[in-house]
Amino acid sequence: VKKIAVLTSGGDSQGMNAAVRAVVRGALYRGLEVYGVQRGYQGLLNKDLFQMDIRSVGDIIQRGGTILQTARCKEFVTAEGQQRGADVLREFGIDGLVVIGGDGSYQGALKLSKLGIKTMGLPGTIDNDIPCTDFTIGFDTAVSVAVDAINKLRDTMTSHERSSVVEVMGRHCGDIALYAGLASGAEAILVPEIPFDLKQISLQMKENFKNGKRHGIIVVAEGVDSGENIARQITEYSGIEPRVTVLGHIQRGGTPTHNDRILASRLGDYAVQKLMEGDSGKALGISKGVFCAIPIETVCTTKKPFNTELYELAMRLSQ
Ligand code: ATP
To answer: Binding positions for Mg(2+) (predicted)?
Structure first.
């Protein structure tokens, strides 16, 4: 490959900018030309591409969001849209593409690789729902945001001897709830991967208050149910009336943590290296400290294993 492009797609995540920077500078360092695509696959179809130089990615490593903007594009899900996308890349003389996004965006990269464009997928999502990498870019920051919010809630819950239900993001994956719940000392963590008995949890919370506990924090992953519904059921079972906080999109914002910046920097540079080796259609990640490149097909048909050891630890320590 001589000329590559980079785009961000789907929901944004903190660290996407650090990944773009690493792709651009990693490519220029190796003598390649690099183009940025604005607004994901939509921008590709609109021929919204521009050449990037060293300075174009200055002062972004510390910024949340994505300077390339992101979008969801229905047209690109069709075979005609994908063919047009490949044609646009060829028109610009681009033979390699790095896609930073979630599993939907990976599907698009896979289609382009089947049309002869060399592609690499980087896991840019706060959800941590992509197999073949221990962590996705943005997850660490999203957990930090959630932990910070729960710390603040705990202050006021303790003063008033109240309980809180905190709804966190993650789509079908419970990792944000698990990590934020463990790190903030939540009494219960409700995730889609593990069945739970809400009646028993509610009665235990009532018992804990009787025994001198001064707050109760329940973290619920959005993939389980809404915080409102969980709180309503807790009231039915125990009479306790928890306050509900939905953290929402603040979890996708803010300056990325050093972990996310380092992960993004390593993976961005690795993507360029893989493209230069002539590899294509791979999802990249780091697992147990080692780089991995797995076929996108495998990643899209595999469910990331849930960390039951951490879950059990959180439960043991939550009494
Ligand atoms: P996140 O999980 O963070 O929201 P995502 O990448 O999964 O990110 P999606 O909205 O699922 O987000 O996908 C982003 C874009 O990728 C879509 O708008 C579409 O353009 C493209 N895409 C999704 N699925 C496919 C598919 N099966 N084939 C081709 N392109 C796809």
So the answer is: 103
